[in-house]
Amino acid sequence: MTILLSDPRVSAIPVHECGEPLVALDASFGPAAARVRGGLAGRLGIARDLLPTGIHLRVVEGHRSVTAQRAIIARYSAEIRAARPGIPAAELRVLTSRFVSPIDVAPHVAGAAVDLTLVDACGEELDLGTAIDATPEQSQDRCYFAATDISRVARSHRDLLAAVLGSAGLVNYPTEWWHWSYGDRYWALVTGNSACYGPVGTETSAA
Predict the structure, then answer these.
(1) Which residues of 19-45 are buried (b: 16+ CB within 10 A; e: fewer)?
(2) Which of the residues in the chain have pLDDT under 70?
(3) 53 CB-near residues (< 8 Å, 6+ apart)
(4) Which of 35, 72, 175, 199 has the fewest beta carbons closer than 10 A?
């Protein structure tokens, strides 16, 4: 069964903040220069080195401010409400969390998550079945990592992502093939380890 970020079991996980700073990923991970916790950066380096020759990780987003997180929540919640007039608040929260995390447990706000894909030696994105950030509605649920109605090539690329990132200690959020995290509450729930990364920065200073 898929555990969503809105699940009370996620928010119940305590965070033992380790104080690790954010670092910018180097150009080998693409032009975004995304910022993530140092420990996550090191594990992404391990995953990168496990890839076959000619295939690379491209990280498109890492740490996200609370303000940015709230904006994504508001936008996607509005889309759901428009499609389902009168939806109860509790159900809206659950459906929204398929695509964007509640603020209090958001892995991106903790600097503990990345959105990424695979590219070839020329920097062209490989087929992963959907675009990054395709919502469940836009993709007919093909954004789910385990979706079956994607090409064999896309499945092989998702499996490759899982192999290298899983070997480096990251976990996937099952509704988004591109979202992987380490050290946050969701990761802790899935792995049975202690969460070491909580929210980073403030409304005005985080980027």
Answers:
(1) ebebbebeeebbebebbbbebbbebbb
(2) 202-207
(3) none
(4) 72
The number of C-alpha atoms within 13 Å of 133 and in the hemisphere containing its C-beta is 7
Whole-Å CA distances, 150 to 56, 139, 161, 178: 21, 10, 15, 15
Say which amino acid occupies 10: V
Find, among 79, 60, 21, 84, the residue nearest to 177 by Cα: 60
What gap in Å lies between CA 184 and CA 197, rounded to an integer?
5
3-state secondary structure of 195: strand
Three-state secondary structure call for residue 57? strand
Count the alpha carbons within 13 Å of 105 in the hemisphere toward its beta carbon: 22
Kindly state the DSSP code that residue 110 receives in the 8-state scheme: T
- Distance in angstroms (rounded) separating the CA atoms of residues 86 and 103: 23
